[in-house]
Design brief:
By secondary structure, the chain is an alpha/beta fold. It has helices at residues 19-30, 106-116, 132-144, 185-197, 219-226, 229-242, 261-274; strands at 2-5, 34-38, 47-50, 67-69, 74-76, 83-85, 99-102, 122-125, 150-153, 166-171, 208-213, 249-258, 281-294, 297-307. The structure holds zinc ion (2 copies).
Length: 313
């Protein structure tokens, strides 16, 4: 297992795959073995914007950007399912053909792979595959039987099936899960990436896992590369103990949602005022929830933090 420092080995303009990763993919192809590229993001691009006026396509009822699904020709909200056709002109300024896709999803990585390796057999695995579970099972079988050279997949590929010829696993964006501010982010990223990179080398063939990252010194990256799960958990446990986070403390989130922002905030404030005072409990907030609008409902969040023995209910 190795990290690829994306600051030192950046992708070509408009691309997302480092020349280091592409080089290893080429060698793997030459050996007639399989590569897996992992990116936990469905669709083509997580954001679409107008190059002329800067308009960004957001969901009308959520505080989230619409994800482009190019194959279906749609912009889709991954939180509420809202979808619309991707227009040719900007709805804001009316300019034609100046919408740009920002950032990668698995469909876009597939496009880049095909441009580099036009003769390789490439498969994209993601939960919005047409044909559902049955189709997915067929695709997994095809991969296990060696009918694909390069597999590009979301979380779905982390579990299950054994792929005996898969000797290269590339994580396109190892930093993706670390950015969300959840106290469990480090642990989850560690588990997911360990699982994904563990896909390589189950049959004794020489294999390699590569993590594309902008933070190769991050404790999560170091722990994965060193394979030292124990050291990672020790560090994580010490940090949680210091911050009185679970399992050393208790943490509860209460979401208040309402049709208007003012109502949601008002109720959340009222709830805070009504909270019984206890020496071993703190109430934090209310603040806008990480996703402050879902399906037209405005959301505020209170966090209640206490010691392990505190009676929260
Ligand atoms: Zn525009
Ligand atoms: Zn939505």
């Amino acid at each position: 297992l190795k990290t690829i420092d994306m600051r030192r080995a950046p992708p070509a303009r408009g691309g997302f795959l480092s020349p280091v990763l592409l080089g290893h993919m080429r060698q793997t192809l030459e050996k007639k073995e399989q590569s897996l590229l992992f990116l936990n993001r469905r669709g083509y691009a997580p954001l679409t914007l107008c190059r002329v006026c800067g308009h960004r396509f957001g969901c009308p009822v959520c505080s989230a950007w619409l994800v482009e699904h190019r194959f279906r020709g749609q912009l889709v909200c991954h939180h509420c399912g809202h979808n619309e056709r991707r227009p040719e002109a900007c709805p804001e300024c009316g300019t034609l053909d100046h919408l740009v896709a920002c950032g990668p999803g698995v469909e876009r990585i597939a496009e880049e792979v095909v441009a580099h390796f036009p003769d390789a057999r490439t498969i994209v695995l993601s939960s919005d595959l047409m044909g559902g579970v049955r189709r997915l099972r067929l695709e997994l079988e095809a991969i296990a039987n060696g009918e694909a050279d390069i597999v590009i997949g979301t979380q779905l590929v982390a579990k299950g099936h054994n792929f005996p010829d898969m000797t290269l696993v590339g994580v396109v964006d190892a930093d993706l899960g670390l950015a969300n501010g959840d106290p469990r982010a480090a642990e989850r990223t560690f588990q997911l990436l360990s699982q994904v990179t563990g896909r390589a080398g189950r049959t004794g063939k020489k294999s390699l896992g590569l993590l594309q990252t902008f933070q190769p010194d991050h404790p999560v990256m170091r722990a994965i590369v060193s394979g030292d799960a124990e050291a990672f958990y020790e560090r994580e446990i010490a940090e949680r103990e210091r911050a009185v986070l679970p399992p050393f403390g208790r943490l509860a989130g209460v979401i208040v949602s309402a049709a208007t922002r003012a109502e949601a905030e008002g109720h959340a404030r009222g709830l805070r005022r009504a909270a019984p005072h206890a020496a071993d409990l703190f109430v934090l907030g209310p603040a806008e929830a990480p996703l402050s609008l879902i399906g037209g409902r405005h959301r505020f969040r209170l966090l209640i933090q206490g010691e392990r023995r505190a009676d929260m209910q």
